[in-house]
Amino acid sequence: MSNQSVTNINQATFRALADPSRRAVLDLLRRGSLSAGQIAQSFPVSRPAVSKHLRLLRRANLVEERRQGRNRIYRLNPGPLRAVDSWLEQYRMFWQTSLTNLKALVESEGAKKASKGWKKWKM
Predict the structure, then answer these.
(1) Order of strands, edge to edge, in the sheet holding 71-76?
(2) In terms of Cα–Cα distance, which of 69, 65, 88 is closest to 77?
């Protein structure tokens, strides 16, 4: 199966991504680095609630934090998302193959029915 450390990283990542507020924070950070205060202003929840989300994202290594004076600046760390994307690629390939096979089957059955219909009409 897969490497245990990768599995653990993915579990932490999935846990962090499970919450829509945390996904919204990541969406904000896709545009660039923001302070904790700027992030908190984008949500209708308390600053401590936003701080809790940021802490979980930091523990999952999805965001990086640096101090700038009194502020904490956060930026997106795409590494764990690449690991998830790599894991999902297996399923993309599975579904692509399955859909290609289904398309071929449907087209084959359609051609058979069209051929039978043509023979009936021709006779």
Answers:
(1) 34-35, 71-76, 63-68
(2) 65
pLDDT category of residue 121 using cuts at 50, 70 and 90: low
Q: Is residue 116 part of a domain?
A: no
Percentage helix, strand, coil, to 5, in the chain? 70, 10, 15
- Total domain count for the chain? 1
Instruction: Residue 29: give its domain's CATH number.
Output: 1.10.10.10
Buried-state track 35-65, b at ≥16 Cβ within 10 A, e below 16: ebeebbeeeeeeeeebeebbebbbebebbee
- CA dist 26 and 17 (Å) reads 9
Bridge-partner residues for 34, per DSSP?
A: 74
Q: What is the pTM of this model?
A: 0.69
